[in-house]
Design a protein that fits this description.
single chain; TAT_signal; two-stranded antiparallel ribbon; Twin-arginine translocation pathway signal protein; 7 helices
Length: about 180
């Protein structure tokens, strides 16, 4: 089994077990019903004077990663897991996440095949990229590309996947108490 599949399965993300096993950082319980609510949360966090992070990625890197994911749903992911993986692990993971209304995954795992995230990306540029990608997705009426792990998703399923993905990453950021 290639390393990326083994890492995905071992992380517990494929079966949604990471929170059950107590793995990973302590995150806020954040569930967002769709991209508009996710963007509201992004703006709320982005307007805070400071953020505490439970992950190694900074706020701008996180926004860049999320923008990549939304963009790839329209343009195509750089690499795909096998059809067998998507059928036996990816699609069931998505269905479990959708049923729970929340996903958990490694918050510093890059999208397979995607370019490395820049460390010095200006926050305004990263925010604009994610806002633009989400706006384009919400207006998108063309064919959607298969998710690298989940396979083919409808527009509604993709919006749910994106909202859960954004929520999972945003849950790692908190506004410190003053």
């Amino acid at each position: 089994m290639p390393h990326s599949r083994r890492a995905f399965l071992a992380s517990g993300a494929a079966l949604g077990t990471a929170p059950l096993l107590g793995c990973g950082p302590r995150l806020r319980d954040l569930r967002l019903p769709g991209l508009p609510a996710a963007l509201d949360e992004m703006r709320r966090l982005g307007s805070a004077p400071a953020l505490q992070s439970q992950t190694a990625w900074g706020w701008a890197q996180t926004l860049e990663h999320l923008a990549q994911s939304v963009e790839y749903s329209m343009t195509g992911y750089p690499t795909q897991q096998s059809a067998l993986f998507q059928l036996l692990a990816g699609r069931p993971a998505f269905q479990l996440f959708a049923w729970r209304g929340q996903m958990r995954h490694d918050l510093t795992a890059p999208i397979p095949g995607s370019p490395a995230l820049a460390v010095g990306t200006p926050l305004a540029a990263a925010s604009l990229r994610l806002l633009t990608a989400c706006g384009q997705f919400l207006q998108w009426r063309g064919p959607l590309q298969p998710h690298f792990a989940y396979g083919a998703l409808t527009h509604a399923e993709y919006e749910q996947a994106h909202a859960m993905h954004l929520a999972n990453h945003f849950a790692a950021f908190q506004v410190p108490a003053e």
